[in-house]
Amino acid sequence: MTSSTETGGVTGTPDKDYNLIWYVEACLNNALRLESYIQDAEREKDTEVADLFRKAQADSRKGAALGKKLLRARLDGS
Predict the structure, then answer these.
(1) For residue 72, with 0-12 CB atoms within 10 Å meaning exposed, 13-18 middle and 19 or more buried, which class applies?
(2) Helices (H), ranges, 4-46
(3) Could you report the per-residue pLDDT of 37-60, keeping only the tens digit for each?
(4) Helix, strand or coil for residue 66?
(5) Are residues 56 and 34 in contact, defined by beta-carbon separation less than 8 angstroms?
(6) CA distance 21 to 19
(7) What residues have CB less than 8 Å from 71, skipping those under 6 apart?
(8) Are 64 and 35 in contact (CB under 8 A)?
């Protein structure tokens, strides 16, 4: 949904918080998806690609952790 007027009336969650929730979910999904890609690369004995995907997975986990921390603080009212 791309709208310049939605500010939480439809979802009950302000856009900025909803976007943060989406970001955390996307990072977590990416980390899961990359696990399959790592296994595929390892099966083919392609360590270069497996290492690339491991780094990307670590970045996704880090993004999720940072997003969860910020979301927690926002939802706690801090």
Answers:
(1) exposed
(2) 15-43
(3) 999 999 999 999 999 999 999 999
(4) helix
(5) yes
(6) 5
(7) 17, 20, 21, 24
(8) no
Largest CA distance in the chain: 51
Burial class (CB in 10 A: 0-12, 13-18, 19+), 27: buried
Q: Which backbone phi and psi does 16 adopt, to 5 degrees?
A: -60, -40
pLDDT digits (tens, 9 = 90+) for 21-30: 999 999 999 9
Are the beta carbons of 17 and 75 closer than 8 angstroms? yes
Q: Give the total residue count for the chain.
A: 78
Q: Centre a 10 Å sphere on the Cβ of residue 34 and count the other Cβ atoms it contains.
A: 20
pTM exceeding the 0.90 threshold for the entire prediction: no
CB atoms within 10 A of CB 59: 14
Answer whether 20's CB lies under 8 Å from 71's CB: yes
